[in-house]
Design brief:
Helix content is 59%, strand content 0%. The two termini are 20 Å apart. The mean pLDDT is 92.
Length: 199
Amino acid sequence: MSWIKIINVNDATGRLRKLYDQIKSPDGHIDNILKVHSLRPATLLGHLSLYKAAIHSKPNALSPRERELVGVCVSLLNKCEYCVKHHTAGLARHIGNEALAQKLVTASVSENDDDVLTGREKALCFYARKLTQTPGAIIEQDVKNLSKVGFDDGAVLDVNQIVAYFAYANRTVLGLGVTTDGEPLGQHPDEEREDFQHG
């Protein structure tokens, strides 16, 4: 599950127990990427807050399909199998087609002009690839290229924060050896609700 100690739900007390109660799915499940913070509940809350705000809150100019696609693109580039599995499953759930989800995932990291991605998705993935692989090379024109396909400044911020969140999440997972062992894939909080409960 991870290379460091994890406090499971039944053993949690105090602040950690309250957080676990807020995020567990109806069947009592909590993702390993969240449980790996159990020794430091403050970082668990920080992780949850950033995740919910960047990906599962309104307003957000990106569709659920686009958000998952950007997350998988970044995670593939960072070789984070955990996040690739979870967010490919999330993408498949949003579009209702596992085969198409796999094609989109493959296309997200390709520099070839692939017809499976929309023009908007190509622009998103280009920005996500560049910010992930060569962040110091990002220039103002990269943001202008997003505006050419319909992104206003708020939308650009949304894209930027999703890419930045996945850089953080991938390094949390990879640096601590977090696995998907025993996890249902692709669960996330409901953006219509204020809480963190996954399902």
